[in-house]
Amino acid sequence: MNMPDQVQKLIEKLKSSDRDVVKASIIEELGNTGDHRALKPLVESLNDGDALVRWNAIRAVAGFGADSVALLFRTIESGDRFARRNVVQVLGEVGGEDVVDRLIRMLMFDESDHDVMIEIIRAMHKLRPERAVEPLITVLKMSDWEMRWRAINTLGHIGDPRALEPLLAVMEDEDPDIRWAAAIAVENIKNRALKRDAEPDSQPRAADTLPPASLPVERKKPARDLAVSASQKNGWTVVKVEGEMISTNSASFRSYMDGVVSVSSGPVEIDLSDCDFVDSLALGHFNAIRKKLKSKNRKMKISGMNPNLKQMFKATKLDELFAIE
Fold it and tell me: Lowest-confidence range among 147-161, 193-207, 267-281?
């Protein structure tokens, strides 16, 4: 019996069977055949009520790669929310430029269902397209908690420095879980930018092999105690930071700076000449202070950074956000 006959028999059996385990097995076999006649019934199986059947259908359709995209796009247009959600899962497995374009358009303009939009962001997390950075930044401004949380994680996973400023702003959010997610995303972007800067010609991208960051930052040696002091110099309020700014002490720096901003006038300089390390939480505090001063038409600059800190600011393009001396 030749393969085309066998494929047709599998398709007929899939349509007639009412046992989920049998359907799941048939779908797996159809996917393995690579016969394009199987695509339509496989896509239809994405709407099955059984989770295993749907999952096998997702994997089977994804196995056809770009050949399945046109049919999946038509299913998105005609399907209900359940169908669209499952199709987006497949598109996240298939990938490709056309898929990314369609998912971005859905996220920004065409889709309104919460669960479908969540699947779109999850697909972006898998595909990591750099051109999705701006749309995902837009999601950060939405009110839906889960969408914001997933967008934050995806931006950290993509690792594009363009996301740093909006993520630093999110670190001021009232929700502690959102702040925590943003801090980890910033740390990931920072680490990946440094890795790419150190190995510009490496393949695959350094972000593909870098382990996810965690907070608080693990240090190879005990952190130096943080000491902060202020003085006046040539009309500037100079705040000198000594030690290391990490998650366990950066809040005290922020409190000190809030006091400095309140009782002083004119520009502010943060002197890091005796500061060894700055983590993502501290960067968030720097940005909040910068914005607070800017709202009062006051300048802020950072001075005295050691070579490692300067490299980090340059690699992440934070030197374009902060005035560096």
Answer: 193-207
Q: How confident is the model at residue 248 (pLDDT cuts 50, 70, 90)?
A: confident
Q: In what order do the strands lie in the sheet with 236-245?
A: 227-233, 236-245, 268-278, 300-303, 323-324
Instruction: Report the alpha-carbon angle 134-138-142, nearest 5.
Output: 160
Identity of the amino acid at 262: S
Length of the chain, in residues: 325
- Whole-angstrom Cα distance, residue 307 to residue 87? 48
For residue 271, the surrounding DSSP H or E stretch is strand 268-278
Domain boundaries, the chain: 3-187, 227-324
Select from 291, 280, 225 the least CA-distant residue to 257. 291
Distance separating alpha carbons of residues 57 and 93, to the nearest angstrom: 12
Average pLDDT, integer, range 135-163? 95
Residue 223 has pLDDT above 70, yes or no: no
Query: Which CB contacts under 8 angstroms, 24+ apart, belong to 95-100?
Result: 95/126, 95/127, 96/66, 96/69, 98/69, 99/69, 99/127, 100/127, 100/129, 100/131, 100/132
Find the mean pLDDT for residues 88-95: 93
Write the class of the CATH domain 227-324: alpha beta
Q: Indicate the residue type of 74.
A: R
The confidence score (pLDDT) of residue 217 equals 43
Q: Whole-angstrom Cα distance, residue 245 to residue 283?
A: 9
CA 210 vs CA 148, 206, 207, 308: distances in Å: 24, 6, 5, 19
**CATH superfamily, region 3-187:** Leucine-rich Repeat Variant (1.25.10.10)
Residue 88 has pLDDT above 50, yes or no: yes
| Lookup: tokens for 91 | 């598109």
Give 274-289 pLDDT, tens digit per residue. Answer: 998 888 888 999 999 9
